Amino acid sequence: MVEAKALVKRFGSFDAVKGIDVDVRRGEAFGFLGPNGAGKSSTMRMVACVSPRSEGDLTVLGMDPDRDGPRIRARLGVVPQQDNLDTELTVRQNLQIYGRYFGLSRAHVRRKADELMEFAQLTDRADDEVESLSGGMKRRLTIARSLVNDPDLLLLDEPTTGLDPQARHLLWDRLFRLKSLGVTLIVTTHYMDEAEQLCDRLVVMDGGRIVAEGSPSQLIARYSTREVLELRFPPGEQDGVVTTVSDLGDRVEALPDRVLVYTGDGERALERVHGRGVRPLSSLVRRSTLEDVFLRLTGRTLVD
């Protein structure tokens, strides 16, 4: 569906994307993860055929974006990070008018709008103006609108940012349904749990380059341990503990209020911590997550 080789995006003398290789297979959910400024959005804009590549090879749906941009865009669905709905129009009108942009007949877009409102659970709000909808409803409508042309490839940029947990899970359910129907998804997200839930494969980008690639489980196995032991201490006391427990895991990390011990057996490590006279305020044994991988690969320093 998408193939990139040595893909570069340059703005003046600044390389936002520095020669990445990507392949997205039909029917999968593929993720781009990375901190702000990593190059995710620049890559997505090239795939969406709204920003030309500077160097390298790129094909989308088997076509060249430089030559076949309009044909590619006709088969794409795009969900931007910020909803850009027509707020003074109704839910139904947003879908029908957007469908007309693709040259679809009035009769077709009427039927399609009814189908998509049911899919997005918005049928009972069909004739309400968008301005009156909640954030979660607007997000569902934005996704529904992106499907009006029955796209082969759906691009989602931070699809659940700002939504409450119930709305996020409902959107995940809608996206799982799309994937089961054969729609290929490309997702950017800052939510690691979302990436674990949605993505079959993903890449982690940092500084314009791909620093890791694989399925969520493969990345966790490669860059982390099976479990993580979290030991919480009053601020300032954790640094002295690191030396005491440094041999109890594959890696030990000190944070402002806790020490993380990356280990294959968290309970066994906790027993040994207590055996050495270390008494944290609290302790937690949890499984390693994609967030542990992400922070190890990209660091904990805030990037604006």
UniProtKB/TrEMBL annotation:
Report how it sits in the membrane.
Peripheral membrane protein
State where it is primarily located. Answer: membrane
Which keywords, in A-to-Z order, does the entry hold?
Antibiotic resistance, ATP-binding, Nucleotide-binding, Transport
InterPro entries for this protein: AAA+_ATPase (IPR003593), ABC_transporter-like_ATP-bd (IPR003439), ABC_transporter-like_CS (IPR017871), ABC_transporter_ATP-binding (IPR050763), P-loop_NTPase (IPR027417)
Q: Which Pfam families match?
A: ABC_tran
Subcellular location field:
Cell membrane
Q: Where is the ABC transporter domain?
A: 2-232
UniProt GO MF annotations: ATP binding
Q: What protein family does this chain belong to?
A: Belongs to the ABC transporter superfamily.
For this entry, the protein name equals: ABC transporter ATP-binding protein
Write the lineage as a comma-separated list: Bacteria, Bacillati, Actinomycetota, Actinomycetes, Pseudonocardiales
